[in-house]
Amino acid sequence: MTIALDKLFRTATCVALLTAGGAAIAQQAPVKERPLPKLVQKDGRYALMVDGAPYLMLGAQAHNSSGWPAMLPKVWPAIEYLHANTLEIPIYWEQFEPKPGQFDYTVVDTILTQAREHHVRLDLLWFGTWKNGSQHYMPQWMKADPERYFHLIDKNGRPADSPSPFCTASQELDIRAFTAFMRHLKAADPQRTVIIVQVENESGTWGSVRDYSPAAQKLFEAPVPAGVLKAMGKQSGAPVNWQDAFGPEAEVNFHAWAVATYVGKVAAAGKAVYPLPLYANAALRDPIKPGAPGSYEAGGPTDNVISIWKVAAPAIDIEAPDIYMNDATAYLKVLELYRRDDNALFVAETSGGAANARFFFSTLGLQGIGFSPFGLDYSNTPSVPAAPPASAPAAAARGPQDQFAPAAQNYQLIGPMMRDIARLNFEGKLQAAAEEAGKPTQTLPFKQWNAAVSYGAGRGGRAAGNAEPVGRALVAQLGDNQFLVAGFSSRVDFRPAAADKRRQFMRVDEGVYENGAFKFIRILNGDETDNGLNFRSEPIVLRVSLGVY
Ligand code: DGJ
User: Fold this and answer.
1) pLDDT confidence of residue 401
2) Nearest atom (ligand 1) to Cα of 351
3) 127, 322, 325: residue to mutate for ligand 1 pocket, most atoms within 8 A of CB
4) Helix axes 5-13, 168-188, angle to 10 degrees
């Protein structure tokens, strides 16, 4: 069903039905337009501003085929259990434009309405020309015409299972559809339920490093755009073609430029009608031993071509990694590669199990603006488990929720204090760490204090690391000698930066956050602080005042 925009706009703003005599019989309060979400940068740090203040996305992504109204009852209970504040969920081009030029807004409207009912914000994923390197979400009427909406040609001269970035016919239609989608959001979402939009999904190509069609070949032999040369740190003197400029990286750089240019045009058109923050997600290459082009998805914003994406797709605010790695060295390297002066760190997808939950803290420690494990809904389980009471510790989950418990634990802790955490991080006052196997201690340096984080330490004993490296901790500075401390499976202590001094706890308050404010429960002392501040599996927050002697 296609709904006229003006009708939607009316329902989103103000409806008052009057009888013939003029009495109001039904009234819907006008929806106040909230500030537009935006990505801001200050002193080298980024914040995603939502409702005018820094926001930390405690995200969860639904499975690929869960973005249908009939599936949503299997999504919301998971989001609720997780204490997530943002749902990442796809919008499918094939659903959105069932016939050429006819847009069906019913699904996006259902998602918007239900997200508001569940007090959850949205990151909508535009499954357009590319989904995991293929054109599988193009409308059927496009797929039926591969001559017109053509695939790229691989090295053997055969069409690949990937759209050609040089197909202007597809590009024009993606621009038209994405623009209609963004225009609709502008009209239907004065509440700013949608805070960010992903343009395409893991765009690029598996199985071919670039398009080898004659038209693409001609461009490959043409001079590299000066902006690309500059972005990649090359001298831009005499015109130089891709091969001469980049040698073994020429083809993959060329494809990144081609895909980013296409996606950048789609993004720019959507942004022109509704300037929400936009991002592109990447299927990664190995961050430690990348391997030759061809061994990873080519064309997307992998770490080696982020600068090409920046220059070719300036309407994309963030290049975001999808991190499906459990090894701490590799994971942390990815975070480091995507946290750049010109790029906010946003973990758009990651695997959701216990091994990865700790990296939410690593992401925070690098001023990440969001984190979102993938596939956290109940679409793959026969029944939806009953929601546990809000106060139940997430770690105590049993059944299908078990796999979600570590992520839920994180969000249960951070959710109520999300605004403070996001603000402190934007101000550069927060540090956080995750346990790495074989490294049972870590130091988080502040000006006058070092926070010493240890894992697997018994009472007064040496830190030996946890049986599985799941520990995590965060420390935020509230004043010269005042800190907010939280974590799981870890111990935190403080050492004065001045070597001749020793620390004493002046006072340690344990509390919970309610409505964004710390609520005192008790003063911790004695066994609870003599060996440092201990964090197990409960969502505990401490406010600590330190002194020296
Ligand atoms: C990464 C993709 O972006 C997701 O849509 C999904 O296909 C996952 N991979 C599956 O692991």
Assistant:
1) 73
2) 11
3) 322
4) 30
Alpha carbon distance 360, 472 (integer Å): 9
**CATH architecture entry for 55-382+396-416:** Alpha-Beta Barrel (3.20)
Intervals of CATH 2.60.220.20 along the chain = 433-548
Residue 541 has pLDDT above 70, yes or no: yes
Nearest CA to 260 among 336, 169, 165? 165
Instruction: Give ranges for CATH 3.20.20.80 in the chain.
Output: 55-382+396-416
Is the distance from the beta carbon of residue 88 to the nearest atom of ligand 1 less than 6 Å? no
User: What pLDDT digit, counting tens, does each position of 297-332 carry?
Assistant: 999 999 999 999 999 999 999 999 999 998 999 999
The verdict on the CB of residue 134 being under 6 Å from ligand 1 is no
- Provide the pLDDT for residue 23: 44
Nearest partner of 495 among 463, 452, 436, judged by Cα? 452
Which homologous superfamily does the CATH classification assign to the domain defined by 433-548?
Answer: putative beta-Galactosidase from caulobacter crescentus (2.60.220.20)
Cα-to-centroid distance, 365 and ligand 1 (Å): 25
At 22, the pLDDT band (50, 70, 90 cuts) reads very low
382 alpha carbon, distance to own chain's centre: 28
Q: Which of 64, 125, 137, 281 to mutate to test the pocket of ligand 1 (most atoms within 8 A of CB)?
A: 64
Residues 6 or more apart whose CB falls under 8 angstroms from that of 113 comprise none
Residue pLDDT, tens place only, 39-69? 999 999 999 999 999 999 999 999 999 999 9
Instruction: Indicate which atom in ligand 1 lies nearest the CA of residue 202.
Output: 3
pLDDT of residue 2: 37
User: How many A from CA of 256 to the centre of ligand 1?
Assistant: 20
